[in-house]
Amino acid sequence: MTAALALGDDALVLSHRLGEWAGHAPVLEEEVALANIALDLLGQARTLLSLVGDEDELAYRREERAFRNLQLVEQPNGDFAHTIARQLYFSTYQLLLYGQLASGDSAFAALAAKAVKEVAYHQDHAEQWTLRLGDGTTESHERMQRACDALWRFTGEMFHPVEGLDVDREALRSAWLESVTGVLHRATLTVPDTPDTGAWSAGAGRQGLHTEAFGRMLAEMQHLHRSHPGASW
Amino acid sequence: MVTGTALEAELRRLAGSVPDPELPVLTLEELGVLRGVQMIGPGRVEVELTPTYTGCPAIEAMTADIERILHEHGMAEVSVVTVLSPPWSTDDISAEGRRKLAEFGIAPPRPGAMGGPVPLTLTVRCPHCGSAETELLSRFSSTACKALRRCVTCREPFDHFKEL
Q1: N- to C-terminal Cα distance for chain A?
Q2: Considering the domain boundaries, does residue A171 fall inside one?
Q3: What is the ipTM metric for this complex?
Q4: Which residues of B touch A113 (CB under 8 A)?
Q5: Which of A103, A220, B20, B129 is most buried per CB count within 10 Å?
Q6: Chain A contact present for B61, CB below 8 A
Q7: How many domains does chain B have?
Q8: Is the pLDDT of residue A203 over 80?
């Protein structure tokens, strides 16, 4: 069930990060868009975590080291360009991953077949914003490039093996690189030539090792449930 | 006394008549989310429901409404189960459902969501004035299943039930 936890935690953590934009997004339409994407991800997380155990126990009672999400999805929202770069990298990965899983016969096939259609909208949203910011003003271009560069070192982990996840990782990686490269080029951005894994953190999210910001995010996400156990709405 | 299958058909009709909590002009039958109704014992019925979107919160309200209406019709035990496969598509919305959406001011999804690039090139007509001159404002609107568009002719913004 390592794989269900890994994919479920990816969806849960990114959903929470996107939810942090509520009340802070640059325009109302974008606030609504990010909240809608977060809701899709939360739905995926509920289904995936329910394959492992009680969804609320898993989401609200686990310690940081028990989370198996990619370090990419826990990265802070940063400026809008950082959020969009994170969305571009992750939604492209998820679209390709779910595409593969949907055609297989694993426990994830039904969810993947459903979610892949939703994620296509997430990827399109990230792509359109990448084009608009990259090929926009001098400042938006610089910020978008900075965000793509800063998050690049978290992308390699997406293609590391996960126990119980039966996918063609090489095909996934090459299709991801081709798609992301195409978008960045059209956005007049440069594909980072730096390593796609950090020196100390390589592949660590899937092993339960997380970056500093994740602890603070979890504290906020879990505090209500932990302070008022069993409370209902 | 009604036979099992006639009873199931009656219960299905009742469950299918429940209005969608977000789009009350549509029934669950018209939305195409009701997958099956089976008697699993005397006074015990199982209903299969599929969500439109994986995270759609309306599924909980739909479940409660189905349970209530079937309880009222003598079912002691109603269990509503969620099925994901095959995934729901906007092609599952009936012709009557599409007509009601447009009447409600929401541009209905274009047909053929399952098949390739065709829908993307078709025009979304303004549900208010019927103009084909409309533009996309945002891919996500009041709910995940809708996009926000604007009519260039009458200038009214409107929701478009986007293809899935």
Answers
A1: 30
A2: yes
A3: 0.82
A4: 84-87
A5: B20
A6: no
A7: 2
A8: no
Expressed as residue numbers, the domain containing B123 is 93-161
pLDDT for the residue B118: 45
B47/B108 same-domain check: no
Residue whose token pair is 């793509």? A148
pLDDT at A78: 96
Task: Band the pLDDT of A10: cuts 50, 70, 90.
Answer: very high
Domain boundary among B82, B111, B126: B82
Residues B14 and B65 in one domain: yes
Same domain, B69 and B98: no
Q: Give the CATH number for residue A24.
A: 1.20.1260.10
B38: β partners: B46
Q: What is the mean pLDDT of each run of 10 residues along chain B (164 residues)?
A: 75 95 92 94 94 90 95 94 93 94 91 56 84 90 87 93 89
Q: Is B86 in the A-facing interface, judged by CB distances under 8 Å? A: yes
Q: Of A202 and A154, which is predicted with more confidence?
A: A154
Best of B52, B60, B136, B140 to substitute, by most chain A Cβ atoms within 10 angstroms, is B140
